[in-house]
Specification:
Blueprint lengths: L3 E6 L6 E14 L2 E6 L4 E5 L1 E7 L4 E6 L2
Parallel strand pairs: 1-6
Antiparallel strand pairs: 1-2, 2-3, 3-4, 5-6
């Protein structure tokens, strides 16, 4: 199974903060992303967009909106 570690970057910086791991799904809606883990739990991250997804690194990068 391919699960992801999720990081958030500030709108004006390249620094990133790890917010969660073991994520298997992500749904973008308006200015939020809902993340789902392997146990079926979900977490909503507000005021972000998906910047990149890498299956090789198993990471999902979100960036805060300015």
């Amino acid at each position: 199974m391919c699960d992801f570690t999720v990081y958030v970057k500030n709108a004006d910086s390249e620094e990133q903060e790890k917010i969660t791991r073991n994520i298997v799904g992500a749904i973008k809606k308006d200015n939020s992303v809902t993340l789902m883990d392997v146990l079926g739990n979900s977490q909503v991250v507000e005021n972000v967009y998906i910047e990149s997804v890498s299956t090789m690194k198993q990471e999902l990068i979100l960036r805060k909106l300015s």
